Amino acid sequence: LGTFFLVLTVGLNVLQPPSPTNADAVFSIASSLMCMVYALGPVSGAHLNPAVTVAVALRKGQDAFSRSDAAAYVGSQLAGAVLAGLVYFTATLFHTFPLGNPDGFDVVAWPLSRSWFGVAIAEMIFTFLLCYVVLCTATSDLASPDMFGLAIGFSVVAGGYAIGSVSGAALNPAVAFGVDMTHLCGAAIEYGEFHWRFWHCAVYAVFEVLGGILAAVVFSATHLEASYLEIGGGKDA
């Protein structure tokens, strides 16, 4: 449910006609994430993001979060992302948008928005930021129990403004998958063939999951004295 609303908000914001208010779309997206974190945190931990799930599963002291739990969370997140893509695809009368640069990427190029090198650096660093903030504010007893949702939401604001022009600031393999899957279906309807580079979402996911793994390693090194809160006990809401 949480990933559904996040991806739906992304899609509807990106597909709005250009206007001065669109510059603040990143706040709409971050607000959707923040609301879902507060709403669903007590239910499942509100990961909403496979990279976050990986970070939580790998963090020091997390013995109760099994691989089967992680797989269930990721499956739920991907399903929510695909359903959200279908909704914004229908609501906008079958409009879609590509993941990242619509002309594709070179390995190294300038500007960075045309290169996989730029995407790799941007997505890895700011997914690390998001996952690290989640671990520090939502899984440690050293953090404020009230402000974690705000901190997580503003991590997305930081990433959206910093790297939106480089990679689109997906910061989430489920978002990348939902956007790419929807664009693939849209291209099939418009052109009668599956011509879009669907593998882009897999490359994004690799960089984002690496950011999540790095966040778990750094968190375990910087929070040696923390007691770890148990977050999530079932399938991701």
Low-confidence stretches: 232-236
Structural class: mainly alpha
Q: Using DSSP, what is the number of strands?
A: 0
Strand content: under 5%
Q: How many separate helices?
A: 8
Q: What is the first-to-last residue Cα distance?
A: 5 Å
Radius of gyration, in Å, reads: 17 Å
As an assembly, this protein is single chain
Average pLDDT rating: 84
Sum up the overall morphology in one term.
globular
Element-by-element helix/strand order: HHHHHHHH
Largest sheet: none
Share in helix: 55-70%
Descriptive notes:
This protein is mainly α and 237 residues long. The protein is 64% helix and 0% strand. The chain is built from 8 helices and no strands. Helix 1 packs antiparallel against helix 2 (25-44), helix 1 packs parallel to helix 4 and helix 5 runs antiparallel to helix 6 (148-167). The longest helix has 25 residues, at 67-91. The radius of gyration is 17 Å and the shape is globular. The chain starts with a helix and ends in a 15-residue tail after the last helix.
In brief:
With about 240 residues, the chain is mostly helical. Helix content is about 65%, strand content about 0%.
Characteristics of this structure?
237 residues, mainly alpha, 8 helices, 64% helix, disordered C terminus
Write the layout of secondary structure elements.
Blueprint: H1 2-14, H2 25-44, H3 50-58, H4 67-91, H5 116-138, H6 148-167, H7 173-191, H8 200-222
Helix pairs in contact: 1-2, 1-4, 1-7, 2-6, 3-4, 3-5, 3-8, 4-7, 5-6, 5-8, 7-8
